[in-house]
UniProtKB/TrEMBL annotation:
GO cellular component entries: cytoplasm
Protein's UniProt name: Ferrochelatase
Keywords attached to this entry: Cytoplasm, Heme biosynthesis, Iron, Lyase, Metal-binding, Porphyrin biosynthesis
Gene designation: hemH
Coiled coil: none
Signal peptide feature range: none
Residues that bind Fe(2+): 197, 275
EC number: 4.98.1.1
Biological process terms in GO annotation: heme biosynthetic process
Record field: catalytic activity: heme b + 2 H(+) = protoporphyrin IX + Fe(2+); Fe-coproporphyrin III + 2 H(+) = coproporphyrin III + Fe(2+)
Functional note: Catalyzes the ferrous insertion into protoporphyrin IX.
Cell compartment(s), UniProt: Cytoplasm
GO MF, any single term: metal ion binding
């Protein structure tokens, strides 16, 4: 029986207070994040990380000094491996985090030691961004080479409007909406705020398809929910540049002015972590109260939701049988032409997609 290594990509998070600064250094010295010439990046990245450490430390203190992302990703990996048992091959799930352990080099060595016949790269980012999935693919490719791992590799770039993923998200949202509605007086309107991690606008102008894909996800989810008041907004701005808007703060102000309660749905995170458990659950909840938003509710992240794991299993099986080295959830490229940051766009003009 063929052996297939499924490598789950996520960002990673510090495992204790002392890891926060080196984690941030790894993040801010990534050329996909800090887009300045190499000779400045190392120095500037470490400087930004040092400046950011106190704020991040305060956030992680709320979570006991560490990120829960690794444990949640391990649970997803175990659930996916169980869901793939008995399929056409022997599947084993591995985790490669981008900025904290286990990172690509260690995982690539572990995968090589298992001696798979092929590898399948599976981002835990439904929408492709050059800063997340793109950066993880680059790190994995280099690490696999160093580990001498030279087996055929299939890369799933995105599943922004995959029916299984959209339905799993819609199901959680449907339940949360009904629960919130039941707690509100009939006269108070309820607005869904789809909140995605932000991105500097320049990255989108340079061709990053993330915003386009976030909008596709929201359209796919809303197609399953019907006519409900909703808006897209962006959270977690980190640098002084102009980031995608509207920000979640702007949407909370608009909700307060409209006297509408809000139901915040994290749309670009599939796991709970500091940006859901601290930013959304503590900081923006307090901000909403201060602004006079009548009520604030939040949809949980998918984590190991059975519908989500089933969607990932289907994506893995489709990718395995699809015969393409690089594929979207639907097989071929989905992003419109201007988004040159889409990995399909990086294929040389006129070249055939690798088989
Ligand atoms: C320029 C900075 C950043 C960009 C661009 C960015 C994009 C981006 N990030 C995620 C998902 C996650 N980010 C997480 C943490 C995190 N991200 C940044 C900066 C940028 N992210 C920082 C500085 C941090 C550390 C926390 C902090 O200081 O606020 C995490 C993990 C957090 C955890 O608790 O483990 C995730 C997940 C996406 C989806 C994205 C763009 C599409
Ligand atoms: Fe981030
Ligand atoms: Fe794409």
């Amino acid at each position: 029986m063929q052996r297939v290594a499924v490598v789950l990509f996520n960002l990673g998070g510090p495992d204790r207070a002392e890891s926060i600064r080196p984690f941030l250094e790894n993040l801010f010295t990534d050329p996909a994040i800090l887009r300045v010439p190499g000779f400045i990046r190392s120095w500037l990245g470490r400087f930004i990380a040092r400046r950011r450490t106190p704020t991040a430390t305060e956030n992680y203190a709320v979570l006991g000094g560490r990120s829960p992302l690794l444990e949640l990703t391990q649970a997803q990996a175990a659930a996916l491996q169980a869901a793939l048992a008995g399929a056409d091959a022997e599947y084993r799930c591995f985790i490669a985090m981008r900025y904290w352990h286990p990172m690509s080099d260690a995982t690539a060595r572990e995968v090589a030691a298992w001696a798979p016949d092929s590898v399948l790269l599976l981002p835990l980012y439904p929408q492709y961004s050059t800063t997340t999935t793109g950066s993880s693919i680059a790190a994995w490719t280099a690490a696999a080479q160093r580990a001498g791992l030279a087996v055929p590799t299939t890369t799933l770039c995105c599943y922004h409007s995959d029916p299984g993923f959209a339905e799993a998200t819609a199901a959680l949202l449907r339940t949360a909406h009904a629960e919130a509605r039941a707690k509100l007086p009939a006269a108070v309107p309820l607005r869904i705020l789809f909140s995605a991690h932000g991105l500097p606008e320049t990255f989108v102008r340079q061709g990053d398809p993330y915003q386009w894909q976030v909008e596709r996800t929201v359209a796919a989810v809303m197609a399953r929910l019907g006519e409900l008041d909703h808006a897209i907004c962006y959270q977690s701005r980190v640098t002084p540049q102009k980031w995608l808007g509207p920000s979640i703060e702007q949407e909370l102000k608009r909700a307060a002015a409209d006297k509408a309660a809000v139901l915040v749905c994290p749309i670009a995170f599939v796991s709970e972590h500091s940006e859901t458990l601290v930013e959304l659950d503590v900081e923006y909840r307090a901000e909403a109260e201060k602004l006079g938003v009548p009520a604030y509710f939040r949809v949980p992240a998918l984590n190991s939701d059975a519908g989500f794991i089933a969607a990932l299993r289907d994506l893995v099986l489709q990718a395995r049988s699809g015969g393409r080295a690089l594929r979207s959830f639907a097989g071929a490229r989905q992003c419109p032409k201007p988004f040159g940051g889409c990995p399909h766009g990086k294929l040389r003009a006129g070249a055939k997609e690798p088989a």
